[in-house]
Write a structure and sequence with these properties.
Layout lengths: L2 H20 L1 H5 L2 E3 L3 H18 L6 E2 L6 E2 L21 H26 L4 H13 L2 H4 L4 H23 L2 H17 L2 H21 L4 H18 L1 H13 L36 H7 L14 H9 L6 H14 L6 H8 L13 H21 L2 H22 L10 H27 L4 H22 L6 E3 L20 E4 L29 H11 L25 H12 L4 H10 L2 E6 L10 E6 L7 E5 L7 E4 L1 E4 L19 E4 L10 E9 L2 E8 L3 E5 L7 E5 L2 E3 L2 E3 L3 E6 L2 E9 L4 H16 L3
Parallel strand pairs: 5-6, 10-11
Antiparallel strand pairs: 1-4, 2-3, 6-8, 7-8, 9-14, 12-13, 13-19, 14-18, 15-16, 15-19, 17-18
Helix pairs in contact: 1-4, 1-5, 4-5, 4-7, 4-16, 5-16, 5-19, 7-8, 7-9, 7-10, 8-10, 9-10, 9-14, 10-23, 11-23, 13-16, 13-17, 13-19, 14-16, 16-19, 17-18, 18-19
């Protein structure tokens, strides 16, 4: 192969090899990524997506999670993201491995392109790209697919903005618009916001380093961003309207600081040390880690990469240094006043939780700086090389301080504390070696090339090796096990399932062997302890996993607070009444819950009828109950029970409210005169149909979550959809026989499609 061809494929080959190394078990050992959000959130969601499309419906509404929820409007569903549609032909385990691999390569090539746009050479830019793919923050995001995709697109947005700002042109504007839209479709509003915020310093810095006018550059970039947002409007508008109804924006200020980076954890950036994997004492656990497993399992970049990043702090790298500094301050959360000041100035940003996410932007900036630094070390005069050597020695000195740090104060086991010091010695050795190389280089290309290869290896290989066990994997049959409990449930079209949430899983990467809250009977064949516990939750139908199998849920816990307040209050009420069996059973019946399940039955189960005990991998079986008096999912009533919109949900437990005869509405009371019945009904993902016969004015009650996107027609005539029984839907009908149909169309989607079409015209327009 000739030299030019190698120059072309070299960056992709280097980044691809890094990704293959990290994913080697998933690619070659018949295993799959599965941990945490992959199996508990992504897998049910993608199964709902596939089932909805297979039913011939627009993937706009998730009819199986909880009482139903928006699907297209939830950016995590990535409905408009091209890769998502491969789920229709690929099994989940294989798709997810492909998804992670594609975004590792995508992120690495994006940093390569960004470094090239800022003036770095091919070899140095290749190092930056491979380093980003191998750095801790990007692969650690594999647990949250949409954040990984959003982070992988960040360097592409920045490089497209730099090229448009410096050179202009319709092609550059179209390129920026496309990558901005693709990042939005990737589903992470946080990383879209971080990319757009980083545009200003990066474009300004690039323009000044090239001697270009700053204002025209920023105006050109603004047109490209506007084009991208127009293209992404079909996602932006529905998501914005959905978020405006959710509780997330009303979270207390403290919630914005959850999963911040503690200053002591910064030692993990240069050193191959994971503090959460050490047996820290209780006080240290609370002080350093907040008493929880980290949101990012690795923030490691390597000492060698940081040395090169310091060497890149020249004129071209100043803006990247600003971006890296701001990202680090944001990741530290409450440990500096920076993030609090930002939230004071822009309160809506409080809905973006987990400040440690900003470490992906820090890694991007550091890897791009490292590319600039490698070129500078190879070609700079002696003075610059001495400065780089001084930076390396300074970092080595900090490593030395860390080596002698009294780790026994944090780690109970003195032997393990010594092991931590051994790990911290690695950056000391790397920094010292790079300082010597920076000082010893002679003049001329013949001497520069070997030095550059050695320095690049010192910067890339140690962190790549440190991440070798970052991905927890298990055999692919994890994704295909069908729960035995499904054979016992009696749901049909009219019943829902309530499963009490269980917390049983420890971290798969923790050093200790602590048992889960509910112990295991043993490990399933081929699966380790943690994978068995994770699979056990699926076999126990823990929410929202039952949605995988087409079982409609009910009172699912909303940890991220994406539900509207009225539905969240109803869910909270159920948990508040767990010590009152009669009240708990009434709420289940009101929610059309035909079956309830739990591994740890409490007093609430006393009002139910035990139907089966199903073995599980845990020491406890899964208990299944029938709910007496459960309302049909679709039924008709002639009475009205007054329930003001601002009434507490506990009013639904009033003794004079009988949901089999009346519906609770924000209307005057009406006695149940006459009868009404539903003769037939059909349920599809985005529509419901019912035939109702009544001898008096009545309401057809659909025990599915109310949402402004639902519309109704009675005998072909548009009719309002009322919020009934606190959180559900009702449609008024007159006496006689009627055909009622409900359809869902996401609010904002029509306007979004119009704006997207305008953006597409702008994309296709010449000039």
């Amino acid at each position: 192969m000739n030299r030019i061809s190698w120059r072309r494929i070299g960056p992709g080959l280097a980044v691809g090899l890094a990704a293959v190394f990290l994913l080697r078990r998933a690619l070659f050992a018949g295993e799959a990524l599965y941990w945490r959000d992959i199996n508990m959130v992504w897998l049910p969601q993608v199964e709902v997506f596939v089932r909805t499309v297979a039913a011939g419906a627009l993937p706009s509404w998730d009819a199986w999670t909880g009482f139903g929820r928006p699907l297209l409007a939830d950016p995590r569903a990535e409905v408009f993201y091209p890769l998502t549609w491969l789920n229709l032909v690929l099994p989940p385990a294989r798709f997810y491995t492909l998804f992670v691999g594609v975004h590792l390569v995508l992120g690495g090539l994006g940093v390569y392109r960004l470094a090239r746009a800022l003036g770095a050479g091919r070899a140095a830019s290749t190092l930056g790209g491979a380093a980003f793919a191998a750095s801790g923050p990007l692969p650690a995001l594999a647990l949250t697919w949409h954040h990984m995709a959003g982070a992988a697109w960040m360097p592409w947005v920045l490089q497209a903005a730099v090229r448009l700002g410096l050179r202009g042109g319709a092609a550059a504007r179209r390129a920026l618009g496309c990558v901005v839209a693709l990042q939005v479709f990737a589903g992470s509003p946080e990383y879209s916001a971080l990319a757009l915020l980083a545009l200003l310093p990066v474009v300004v810095g690039a323009a000044r380093s090239e001697g270009a006018a700053v204002r025209p550059a920023l105006l050109r970039v603004a047109t490209g961003v506007a084009l991208g947002l127009l293209l992404a409007a079909p996602q932006v508008l529905p998501s914005a309207l959905w978020a405006s109804q959710a509780q997330r924006g009303a979270l207390p200020r403290e919630a914005a600081f959850v999963w911040s980076l503690h200053p002591l954890q910064l030692v993990e950036v240069p050193a191959p040390l994971r503090m959460w994997g050490l047996p820290l004492g209780p006080e240290a656990q609370a002080r350093v880690l907040g008493g929880r497993e980290p949101w990012l399992h690795s923030i490691h970049l390597g000492a060698g990469l940081l040395v090169l990043a310091l060497a890149g702090l020249g004129r071209r790298g100043a803006a990247l240094a600003v971006v890296a500094g701001l990202a680090l301050l944001a990741a530290l959360g409450p440990h500096t006043p920076f993030l609090g000041l930002v939230l004071d100035l822009v309160p809506p940003l409080g809905a973006f939780r987990f400040p440690v996410k900003a470490m992906a932007l820090f890694a991007l900036a550091a890897c791009t700086l490292a590319a600039l630094g490698l070129d500078r070390l190879a070609t700079a005069p002696g003075r610059d090389r001495r400065l780089a050597a001084a930076g390396a020695l300074a970092l080595a000195a900090l490593s030395l301080v860390a080596v002698v740090f009294p780790w026994q104060s944090l780690i109970a086991d003195a032997g393990l504390a010594a092991g931590a010091r051994d790990l911290l010695a690695t950056p000391l050795a790397v920094c010292a070696a790079m300082a010597a190389l920076a000082m010893a280089r002679g003049e001329g290309r013949a001497r520069a090339r070997p030095m550059r290869v050695v320095v690049a290896a010192l910067a890339l290989l140690p962190p790549l090796w440190a991440q070798r066990d970052l991905f927890a994997t298990t055999p692919v049959d994890f994704f295909g096990r069908r729960p035995e409990a499904l054979r016992v449930l009696e749901l049909g079209l009219s019943g829902r399932l309530y499963t009490q949430d269980q917390v049983v899983m420890p971290s798969p990467l923790a050093a200790d062997d602590a048992a889960p809250r509910i112990g295991l009977r043993g490990e399933l064949a081929g699966h380790g302890r943690v994978a068995t516990a994770a699979l056990g939750l699926h076999l126990a139908l823990n929410p929202p996993t039952a949605a995988r199998w087409g079982v409609p849920g009910s009172f699912d816990r909303d940890i991220l607070r994406f539900e509207p307040p009225f539905l969240a209050r109803l869910n909270d009420l159920l948990r508040e009444r767990e010590v009152e069996p009669a009240a708990h059973a009434r709420l289940l019946a009101l929610g059309a819950v035909a079956n309830a399940a739990s591994l740890t039955p409490g007093p609430w189960a006393d009002g139910l009828l035990l139907s089966a005990r199903v073995p599980t991998p845990f020491v406890r079986p899964l208990f299944l109950w029938r709910v007496p008096g459960a309302q049909p999912r679709v039924h008709a009533v002639t009475g009205v029970h007054p329930l003001p919109a601002d009434a507490p949900p506990a009013a639904l437990l009033a003794e004079d409210f009988d949901p089999s005869r009346a519906v609770a509405l924000d209307q005057p009371a009406r006695a149940a005169a006459g009868t009404a019945r539903v003769e037939t009904f059909a349920v599809a993902p985005d529509r419901l149909r019912a035939t109702v016969v009544a001898d008096a004015p009545a309401h057809v009650v659909f025990t599915d979550a109310w949402d402004p996107g639902w519309s109704a027609r009675v005998d072909g005539v548009a009719t309002p959809v009322l919020r009934a029984n606190g959180a559900f839907r009702a449609v008024a009908v007159g006496a006689g026989r009627h055909e009622v149909e409900l359809r869902y169309w996401p609010p904002g989607l029509s306007a979004g499609l119009v704006l997207g079409a305008l953006g597409l015209l702008g994309l296709l327009r010449r000039g």
